[in-house]
Amino acid sequence: MPTPCFRARFLSATVAGGAVAALVLTGCSSNTSTPVPSRQKDVRSSDSNVKMTDCASQCTGEINRAKYTIKLPQNWNGSLLLYSHGYRFAAPAPPSFAPVDTTAQVSSTDSDGTGSDPLSQKLLAEGYALAGSSYKSNGWAVRDGVQADEDLHNQFVKLVGKPRRTYAWGDSLGGLITEVLAETNPDWVDGAAPMCGAVAGPNYNFDVALDVAFAVKALIDPSLKLTGYASADEAARNWTAASAAVLKAAADVKGGGTAKVLFIASLVNAPTATATYDGHDLTSQVKARVEALLTALAFGTSGRYELEQRVGGNPSDNSHADYAKRTEGNEATLITTAGGNVASLEQRLAAAPRVTADANARTAIEKLGDTTGAITAPTVTMHTEQDPLVLVQNESVFSDRARAKQAAGKLVQLYVAPPKTYSETAKAPYGAGHCNFSDGQRTGLIDVLDNWVRHSVYPVSTGVASKLGAGVDALYTPGPWPGDEQQQQ
């Protein structure tokens, strides 16, 4: 078949964490002919009514103890969206202590596996087939999530038909699973869209949770246990006591408690806004940082207990952390304004005993699954700029890995900023909070990825804005990982 000819023009875009000049390709005529691989013919196909088999009662089921759900459109465009859900606690855990969830879901907002939510319905109306599953275990189940996705893809091919293209997408831990799945299955994953993903991997994210717990113990709650919980109940009790202590400290302006909370937040670059608090003044910023710290403590207690059981010990470490380098100038000014002394607080941390990881456990957690940056399929990540759980700096680590593997050209990273102000009751519509995106931003993300994969339309700022709408921040680049000195050891 004729080989497409392209004319190039340059536009700015954010690629792998940096502003670069991006090629936008437009068609032109050519008489040159070269064969196109059959897979690429399928991927580029414009057929909007691909033949499929209705899986009927087998559209729901269980594979290897993981429940799955498949939802089929009326007319299939040949694309399968394979969804990976986020972290689910293995036992009722803070802050909500909700019952354990083992349902399958086919999109970010599909709460019960029925696909009846507006987001799923919109994607089905556009012709996408949707599939998603639970994992055979809850907790830091990266390996289980990848296996569940691989099994479900095979099941879809068997029951429905072979997709012309498969896009992996997922939220939070599911974002990490999405990328690991794409890196390990380049033969059938044609594009990836990790959202609010823990793409820096387990050691980065659990080390920073340890940083928070360590500082809370040293400065606010000496009774807080950092590792080695005997049970899920003990871990939850530690969170309950520590959270009460943090809340009490935050309200103690005169006694220095507020400054301590701000100082601890500065160690991990905790966001100044959340879905509830817009950070428009000092009070709102303190509330936002308290929320972020309590969220981190939930994973530093209940999440840590599950993880230690999974890998046979404590995988987290702060023995090389240099906390004196963490607090930046504007943060120090804020702490001083709240009545704190940064040097004194740093000295107290320096005097506290550090935590050393169990080497076997630290290696074991990496083997559960981590990104390498060896990207082969077009990958578009999306992250809120103010994420209190999976820090936006995850994207900085991931982009560094992609550059090291000479794969930066396959990675585009999108960031969503919240409105400048919003009320605590209405909350942020997008941009602040963990995985807080609008349905339009999520469907726009898939459109951007689809255009890149099928039509070689490289995502640039103008095109992305038209697809995702308000909130997309083309000029934003996250800073380095807080405490990267620890990871370099």
Automatic annotation (TrEMBL):
Under the heading InterPro entries, the entry gives: AB_hydrolase_fold (IPR029058)
Signal sequence coordinates: 1-21
Query: Which of UniProt's keywords are assigned here?
Result: Signal
Domain of life, per lineage: Bacteria
* Keyword Zinc-finger assigned: no
**Can you name this protein?**
Alpha/beta hydrolase
UniProt source species = Jatrophihabitans lederbergiae
